[in-house]
Each structure stands twice: as C-alpha cells, then as structure tokens.
Amino acid sequence: MVLNNIENLLEKYENGETTLKEEQQLKHYFLNETVAPHLEMYKPMFDYFLVNQQEQYTKEIPLKTKRSFNYKWISVAAIAVLMLGVYFGKSYNNDLGTYEDPQLAFNDFSRSMEMISKKFNKGASTVGYLNEVNKGTSTLKYLNEIENTTGIIFKN
C-alpha cells in the first residue's frame, strides 16, 4: 500500500502537482535505506536535493557599491573647454569690407563678377557634350516605335 502511494506521489511530483507535505513524504521515503528496486533511480535525485538544501553561501556580500571614477569624461570635458576657449578667444575683426568711395566699390565688384563669369563659362563649356547625349536618347524613341509596330504585326 505504501509503495503504491509513493508511486502515485512520484507521478504527481513529475507533473508538478504535489503539495509541500507530499514532497516531504517523498524525501523521507527516498532518504531511507530501503527503497523499492524499480524506484532506485529517484534516490540520487532526492539525495542531491538534501545536500543542496544544506549548502550555504559563505562569501560576504558588499552593501556599499564602489564608485569608480570614469576618466573618459575628463577628456571629453577638457576638449569641450578647449573648444570654447578657441571659439571665444578669437579676436573678431569688425571690418566688413565696406568702401568709402563708390567708384572703388564698383570697380572691385566688376572684377569679382568678371572672375565669376569666366569660371562659370569654363564650367558650362565642359558640359556641352550633354546635348549629344540628348540627341542620342531622342533616337531611342524611334526604337520604341519600331517595337510597337512589330508587336502589332506579331500580335504580342
């Protein structure tokens, strides 16, 4: 009768349906020297549970966390201070390039516009080949028309 009860408890234990009291009965049974031969395979498992239950953690747990200083942020702060020093340390020149003489201003403006015009014309002359590309793409339209007519002929 006891063996039948232990087998039922083992089945419930494997399904996770036992109570704490039933688990204590199983532990007590398997800790005895006399265990049924067909249940011997469960004995090492319950022995392990007993040994594991008696183990204790003996290392000391620190309650205060050590504050480690992060030196990476010092370099970031130093770079920020250096950049601010360079930015605000510049001496600003308030000369905006204004002219007192209008004729001198006009002459300087004319020279600037002439230089811009020369550079622009030089750049525009190098893209003259694009007109040839446009002519080539226009001839491709004729190929599309030929494809349409062959489609009509062959009834695609």
What is the CA–CA distance across the termini?
88 Å
Rg value: 47 Å
Q: Would you count the extended β strands for me?
A: 0
State the major sheet: none
Spans with pLDDT under 50 lasting ≥5 residues? Answer: none
Query: What is the string of SSEs from the N terminus onward?
Result: HHHHHH
- Summarize model confidence as the mean pLDDT: 81
What count of helical segments does DSSP give?
A: 6
Give me the secondary-structure category: mainly alpha
- Name the beta content range: under 5%
How much helicity do the residues have? 55-70%
- Gross geometry: elongated
Could you characterize what this model shows?
- By secondary structure, the chain is mainly alpha-helical.
- It is 68% helix and 0% strand.
- Helix 1 crosses helix 2 and helix 2 crosses helix 3.
- The two termini are 88 Å apart.
- The mean pLDDT is 81.
